[in-house]
Amino acid sequence: MTFNLTGPYKVLLLKSERCKTPSKPYDKNPSTYFTSEIYTAKNRTLLRGNLTVVRVDPQLWLSSKGFILAGDKYEAIYVARAVGCNGVLMRIFKIGLNVQHLKGCVPKGMYLYKDVDFNAIQQTWTKTLKYGSYLWRLQQRKEVHSTMKAHCLSHPSTRTQQCCYLAAEIDESEVPMHAFDHYTKGPYKTTVFKSEKCKTPTKPYDKNPAYLYYCEAYKSGEKMLLRANFTVIRVDPLMKINIRAYIKEGDGWKIMYINKSGGCQGFVMEAMKYIFGVQKSGCIPKGTYTYNHLDFNEIQHNWLKTFMYGRFLWTVQMLTSAGTNVCWQFETDITPKLE
């Protein structure tokens, strides 16, 4: 089974803070000071902060290095450096500060910036990217008799404490539904033939999960049904549920739908409570819940009376602040319904 691990994407920033352990030696009299923080507005993660230039130093070096999580380690994927007051990095920096009309170095003064959309900036460089957990390092130095670090700003992930890293998740972006107009649609029948743990769940994993889930597909007469158990060890009101749907194209899977629900509200949680027969509002209480004769076809028809035909992969992921608790996938065939 091959997933499309590269494609249209969106960037979600996770955290912004100064370096914990910048490399020595330090510049005890830096020429610049920089602050940055992440905030959310209209479902976007944005950056705001300020830059103070105490004195102009044309010998400053601005560098950026990118990493992607591969297994349990981060691997470097690129390095970019700009010397002095020119270069692509400096131009991007000046655009963010709204001083792009000025040539050369950023003059002395304090500069405020806000509403900087890292996702939009990244999209200007590439329209497709590999999905996963990323780290970026932003570093500013000056050259004296030895390399001195004037400033080092980090945006590290909550999973690492390395110096000077900007952390983000690069996730799949939904493909517009008109991109699937060439598929035949109509009344349908869904047959689920595979139910298993996800092949590539999102890291990190929660080593002390609050939720456990197991499900299997089995044949009953002419139908393929599902039976499962779901255990709530402890209730986490900040738990998130992500559902993705893919359609088989060639040797891979093309993303076509993403639904993300936060906390104990929303469509996904209500659907889970309906399936497990939970009548209470809010979070599903502690306990173990089962179903034994779930018909995927009937559940899908509760929401959609017509659908496109093909082979589909559905993934359900439950996450807490510590990482992935549950990730399960279902493979189905959707065929024309015969009267």
Descriptive overview:
It is a single chain. With 339 residues, the protein is mainly beta. It has two domains: 2-172, Immunoglobulin-like; 177-336, Distorted Sandwich (Ganglioside M2 Activator Protein, Chain: A). It is 10% helix and 53% strand. It contains four helices and 23 strands. It has helices spanning 88-96, 118-125, 267-276, 296-301; strands at 2-3, 6-7, 9-15, 17-18, 32-41, 44-53, 60-70, 73-83, 109-116, 129-130, 132-143, 147-154, 166-172, 185-186, 188-197, 211-220, 223-232, 240-249, 252-262, 287-294, 307-308, 310-320, 323-336. It starts with a strand and ends with a strand. Residues 145-165 have low confidence and may be disordered.
Give the biggest sheet: 7 strands, antiparallel
What would you say the CATH architecture of the largest domain is? Sandwich
- Name of the CATH first level of the largest domain: Mainly Beta
Q: Averaged pLDDT, please?
A: 79
CATH topology-level name of the largest domain: Immunoglobulin-like
